[in-house]
Amino acid sequence: MDVPAQLTPEAANQLREGIDLLLGRWSALQMAILNEWGGRDTRPKAQQLSVNVYQWLIKPSEGLYVDELEDLLDDFMLSLNTEIDDGSIEEIAENLMIMHEECLVGNFASIGRLRQSVPTSNQQIQVVKGDEDDSDSASSSGDESMENADEDGLDAAPVAEPNVDADGWTVVSSRKNRGGRR
C-alpha cells in the first residue's frame, strides 16, 4: 500500500489536534508545566513544542526517524530542566509517529480514541528536575534514580510520596524538589 507523501488539510488538522492531546496527557510534561520547571514561560514553551513537533512531522520529502523525534522531545525536556529516565519519551515519540502514519492514509481512529478515553496506565515514570546551583541537597547527584527505593532496602515513603495524576501516571520528583521553593 502506497502512503501519500503529504497530509490532506483534514489530516493535518487531525494530526495537530492529536499532537496536542497526546502531549497534554504526557504526565512528565504536565508536571514540568505545573511546577514551572522551565521558568515562568514554561507553558508557552510547551505550546511551542507542539508546533515544533507538528512542523517536524510534516517536513517535506525527508525521512522521519523516531530517534530524531525522541531527541527533539528529550532536548525540549532538558530545556525545562527536566530529565526523563522512564521510557516515556520513546513511547510518546512512537505514538506520534504512528499517529502521523495513520493520518497520511486518512485513519483518525487513534485520535478519536484519545479524544474519548482517559488513559488508565499504571506505568510509573521517573522525573528528575535538574537544579545545579542547589548545593545543600541531601542527594549527591541531580539524576539519582529513586524509582525502586525498596531495592536499596529503604522505605519508599520517606524518600518520595508518589503522586498519581488523573491519567493514572505516577510522578516521582527529585529529593531536591521536596520542601517547596525558597
Automatic annotation (TrEMBL):
Transmembrane residue ranges: none
Disordered: annotated segments: 121-182
Keyword field: rRNA processing
Segments of skewed composition (Acidic residues): 144-154
Database matches in Pfam families: WGG
One Gene Ontology biological process: rRNA processing
Keyword rRNA processing found: yes
Family as reported in the entry's similarity comment: Belongs to the TSR2 family.
Entries under PANTHER family matching the protein: PRE-RRNA-PROCESSING PROTEIN TSR2 HOMOLOG (PTHR21250)
Protein name (database record): Pre-rRNA-processing protein TSR2 homolog
Organism from which the protein derives: Ambrosia artemisiifolia
Highest classification ranks of the organism: Eukaryota, Viridiplantae, Streptophyta, Embryophyta, Tracheophyta
